[in-house]
Amino acid sequence: MSEKFQVGQIIEGTVTGVKPFGAFVALGEGTQGLVHISHITHGFLENIADAVKIGDPVKVKVLSIDEGNNKISLSIKDATEAPPKPALKPQRPKPNKPKKEKEPPVDDFEALMKGFLKDSTERQTDINKRLNR
Question: What is the pTM assigned to this prediction?
């Protein structure tokens, strides 16, 4: 098998079978290889039948040759160029929002707690005044 084919070689073949996991491709007299679903097309492919059908001529790249098991791994997407990516839409500039004033940094936990206690006491006093009216 390795006398006829070399890893990295790009050759013509014909699809002879389509299964959910990949497509079988005839490479010549009595030699077949498998194109795994992940190597059929560039991008996501849910159904192999959307990309190839039995009898389709395809260009494939030999990924690996397993002499012991008589298996050849092939790739259609590696034998073809990826389609150009669509151009990105220009983004509109975002309107400028007024910046919030930053609070001064709190030096320590004590100062933070004193400020919280003061605010809490003032709010509680306001609530009590409203309830007593």
Answer: 0.59
